[in-house]
């Protein structure tokens, strides 16, 4: 009996930037109503080159350079805009519109007026961009009913979540990360398809383990995996959960994991007060997983200060892999 | 000592102490008359403006070098080409007046009293930096200079606020409030125009129009590129921002206007930046190298001043060369300091969150990291 030799499906390496680009390209092609607007997105190819080539392909009507007027968020009846913020720090200039016009309108109109808009751009710290350009807005946007908020980590996340966001009938905030734009990740054959989407509201187990659960979003998923690799050498097997979506948060996945491992550490780049970790702690306490905890939940967060500029200070303002390792051991009482 | 005496003897004997120059007339808006077109420049003033502009130019070029060596990181928005603006403005206001600008701020930090050493050490993120390394390129401050602001346009309402404080305190001071052609389309600027005019605040709004908001030319961003008219009910001037004498004269005119209680005034300075928007922008995808070269050869502010002084026998070639050498040395020394000064100590991490607070505990990256903050 002969078995045909089957080679593994062809996975390719793709950077997060290219994955986002591909997602937008595919959705622009699929639906005429989709268009992109923002500062420098067209002729400049995007401040961070995420929209490279799109203006050349789709032209002025679909890819629009705007003046520096963040507040001009368009509630285009019948259209599906992708609104790029050069960074989410500038979104504060438009945050009233995002919350009061985009997030709340479907509710206020009792279902009459939907707002299928995507707000996307880099979120959180970069490298040396100082206090006004380094804030993480996951907690701020995650606070508001009516908004969906996603935070991709790798290229598959980026493509799948952005495509879902564009197809979603609701306002979706897509929190990208500048430092990840140039990082290549493997894209499975499935992810390379034009119909590949990732459901909003579902977390992913990136690594299985029994000793402790680590939950993170965006860049810190990578940090957690790095910490897990180091800890594995000491026999500590971390289960790493990539949240993928901030709102609606997949608390069930976290609970299931905690009921297995009995320990939880959350990791985020944002500030501690009223943050993602704080919300996870509250939800765990309110649910069935609380009784399975052998120790309090530990939050690893950014330091509670405006972001300093000097490299040595900046490095100490954000969670490093060693902070995660330290916190895991403290939580496990090792 | 002997050399100095000989030099000063040369000064009086050989050089013209002052000369009158014809400068470009300003376009005016809602004004019956504009700034003078015949201005006097003294030799001392000329030498001072030359030195200051040259220092700013060399400082920015050194920053370019250090950035490429990765000794400066993050954002770095250089001012070379626009020197006449900062120097001309400062020439007609006092250090007791106030000034606020956006992120292209190294030049203003210097004219407002920062030293090259402190500025460069801030760019390299060292403890000797003007903000102790905590602010970086976009967040430098000194007395009566409020930065250094990263969010486009946000500094404009702040500037009006400073002017309000001046009026409130009746101290005859004014606030110079700068923004770029890109920022000029921000809504908050129009709100500020309204309040400043309504309350007759002593603020000089200055739009530094360098033709491009990052990669977007003014034609692609603005329904009206007559930035000096966009205050609608605020009088305006359009000024040749490459000529330090034009800027000085226009600022003198504007300052008189404010101090006489007439309220705000708007100046558009037509200027140009040689570098791209920031160090990560080559600056040639949205404009041609020919354009940059043309401005450099025909309108460079330092060359313009130099030509004026030399052709009117107000200085010698050697004298100006000597200033160049001194400036170069000052920049080299500052760069040396900026690259060797140590980074800020970790104890500094949490300081200056609040003012006047006794020691405060600050959460570190994990619950066991209890850090300390002092004001």
Automatic annotation (TrEMBL), chain A:
CDD domains reported in the protein's UniProt record: TPP_PYR_E1-PDHc-beta_like
Cofactor: thiamine diphosphate
EC class (word): oxidoreductase
Highest rank taxon of the organism: Eukaryota
MF (Gene Ontology): metal ion binding; pyruvate dehydrogenase (acetyl-transferring) activity
One Gene Ontology CC term in the entry: pyruvate dehydrogenase complex
EC number: 1.2.4.1
InterPro entries: PDHB_mito-type, THDP-binding, Transketo_C/PFOR_II, Transketolase-like_Pyr-bd, Transketolase_C
Domain Transketolase-like pyrimidine-binding: 14-183
Any one of the GO BP annotations: glucose metabolic process
Entry keyword set: Carbohydrate metabolism, Glucose metabolism, Oxidoreductase, Pyruvate, Thiamine pyrophosphate
Catalysis performed (reactions): N(6)-[(R)-lipoyl]-L-lysyl-[protein] + pyruvate + H(+) = N(6)-[(R)-S(8)-acetyldihydrolipoyl]-L-lysyl-[protein] + CO2
Subunit structure: Heterotetramer of two PDHA1 and two PDHB subunits. The heterotetramer interacts with DLAT, and is part of the multimeric pyruvate dehydrogenase complex that contains multiple copies of pyruvate dehydrogenase (E1), dihydrolipoamide acetyltransferase (DLAT, E2) and lipoamide dehydrogenase (DLD, E3). These subunits are bound to an inner core composed of about 48 DLAT and 12 PDHX molecules. Interacts with DLAT.
Biological role: The pyruvate dehydrogenase complex catalyzes the overall conversion of pyruvate to acetyl-CoA and CO(2), and thereby links the glycolytic pathway to the tricarboxylic cycle.
Descriptive protein name: Pyruvate dehydrogenase E1 component subunit beta
Gene: PDHB
Automatic annotation (TrEMBL), chain B:
Pfam families named among the record's database cross-references: E1_dh
GO cellular component terms given for this protein: mitochondrial matrix
Gene Ontology MF terms: metal ion binding; pyruvate dehydrogenase (acetyl-transferring) activity
UniProt main location, coarse: mitochondrion
Keyword flag Hydrolase: no
Keyword Mitochondrion found: yes
Leading EC class: oxidoreductase
Cofactor(s) of this protein: Mg(2+); thiamine diphosphate
Compartment(s) of residence: Mitochondrion matrix
Record's signal peptide: none
Reaction equation(s) it catalyzes: N(6)-[(R)-lipoyl]-L-lysyl-[protein] + pyruvate + H(+) = N(6)-[(R)-S(8)-acetyldihydrolipoyl]-L-lysyl-[protein] + CO2
Entry superkingdom: Eukaryota
Keyword annotations of the record: Carbohydrate metabolism, Glucose metabolism, Magnesium, Metal-binding, Mitochondrion, Oxidoreductase, Phosphoprotein, Pyruvate, Thiamine pyrophosphate, Transit peptide
Domain Dehydrogenase E1 component: 51-346
EC number assigned by the record: 1.2.4.1
NCBIfam families: PDH_E1_alph_y (TIGR03182)
Function: The pyruvate dehydrogenase complex catalyzes the overall conversion of pyruvate to acetyl-CoA and CO(2), and thereby links the glycolytic pathway to the tricarboxylic cycle.
Protein name: Pyruvate dehydrogenase E1 component subunit alpha
């Amino acid at each position: 009996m002969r078995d045909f030799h089957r080679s593994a499906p062809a996975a390719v390496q793709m950077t997060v930037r290219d994955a986002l680009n591909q997602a937008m390209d595919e959705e622009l092609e699929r639906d005429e109503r989709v268009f992109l607007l923002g500062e420098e997105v067209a002729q400049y190819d995007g401040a961070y080159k995420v929209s490279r080539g799109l203006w050349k392909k789709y032209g002025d009507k679909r890819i629009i350079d705007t003046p520096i007027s963040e507040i001009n968020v368009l509630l285009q009846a019948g259209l599906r805009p992708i609104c790029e913020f050069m960074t989410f720090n500038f979104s504060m200039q438009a945050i009233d519109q995002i919350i009061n016009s985009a997030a709340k309108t479907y509710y206020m109109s009792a279902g009459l007026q939907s707002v299928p808009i995507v707000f996307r751009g880099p979120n959180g710290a970069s490298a040396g961009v100082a206090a006004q350009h380094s804030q993480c807005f996951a907690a701020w946007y995650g606070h508001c009913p009516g908004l969906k908020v996603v935070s991709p980590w790798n290229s598959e996340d980026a493509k799948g979540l952005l495509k879902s966001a564009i197809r979603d009938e609701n306002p979706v905030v897509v929190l990208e990360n500048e430092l990840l734009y140039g990082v290549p990740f493997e894209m499975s054959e499935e992810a390379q398809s034009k119909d590949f989407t990732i459901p909003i509201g579902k977390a992913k187990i990136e690594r299985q383990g029994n000793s402790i659960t680590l939950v993170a979003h965006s860049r810190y998923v990578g940090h957690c995996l790095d910490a897990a690799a180091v800890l594995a050498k000491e026999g500590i097997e971390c289960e790493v959960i990539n949240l993928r979506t901030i709102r609606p948060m997949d608390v069930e996945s976290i609970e299931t994991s905690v009921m297995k491992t009995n320990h939880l550490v959350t990791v985020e780049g944002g500030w501690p007060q009223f943050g993602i970790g704080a919300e996870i702690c509250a939800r765990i306490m309110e649910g069935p997983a609380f009784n399975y905890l052998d120790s309090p939940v530990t939050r690893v967060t950014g330091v509670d200060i405006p972001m300093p500029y000097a490299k040595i200070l900046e490095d100490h303002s954000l969670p490093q892999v060693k902070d995660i390792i330290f916190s895991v051991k403290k939580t496990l009482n090792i | 000592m002997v050399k100095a005496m000989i030099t000063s003897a040369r000064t009086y004997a050989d050089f013209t102490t002052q000369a009158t120059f014809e400068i470009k007339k300003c376009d005016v808006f809602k004004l019956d008359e504009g700034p003078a077109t015949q201005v006097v420049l003294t030799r001392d003033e000329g030498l001072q403006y030359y030195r200051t502009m040259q220092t700013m130019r060399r400082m920015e070029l050194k920053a370019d070098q250090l950035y490429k060596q990765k000794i400066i990181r993050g954002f770095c928005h250089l001012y070379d080409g626009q020197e006449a603006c900062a120097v001309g403005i400062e020439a007609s206001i006092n250090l007791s007046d106030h000034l606020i600008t956006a992120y292209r701020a190294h030049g203003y930090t210097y004219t407002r009293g920062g030293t090259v050493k402190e500025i460069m050490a801030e760019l390299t993120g060292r403890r000797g930096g003007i903000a102790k390394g905590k602010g970086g390129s976009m967040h430098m401050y000194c007395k009566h200079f409020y930065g250094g602001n990263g969010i486009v346009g946000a500094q404009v309402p702040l500037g009006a606020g400073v002017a309000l404080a001046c009026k409130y305190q009746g101290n005859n001071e004014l606030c110079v409030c700068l923004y770029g052609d890109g920022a000029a389309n921000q809504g908050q600027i129009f709100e500020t125009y309204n309040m400043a005019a309504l309350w007759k605040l002593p603020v000089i709004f200055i739009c530094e129009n360098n033709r491009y908001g990052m990669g977007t030319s003014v034609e692609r961003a603005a329904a009206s590129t007559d930035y000096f008219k966009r205050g609608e009910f605020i009088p305006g001037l359009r000024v040749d921002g490459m000529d330090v004498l034009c800027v000085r004269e226009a600022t003198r005119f504007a300052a008189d206007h404010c101090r006489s209680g007439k309220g705000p005034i708007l100046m558009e300075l037509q200027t140009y930046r040689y570098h791209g928007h920031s160090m990560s922008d080559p600056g040639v995808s949205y404009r041609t190298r020919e354009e940059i070269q043309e401005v450099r050869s025909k309108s460079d502010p330092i060359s313009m001043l130099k030509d004026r002084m030399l052709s009117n026998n107000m200085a010698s070639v050697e004298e100006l060369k000597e200033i160049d050498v001194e400036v170069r040395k000052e920049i080299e020394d500052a760069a040396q300091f900026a690259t060797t000064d140590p980074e800020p100590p970790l104890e500094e991490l949490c300081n200056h969150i609040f003012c006047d607070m006794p020691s405060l505990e600050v959460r570190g990256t994990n619950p066991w990291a209890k850090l300390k903050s002092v004001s």
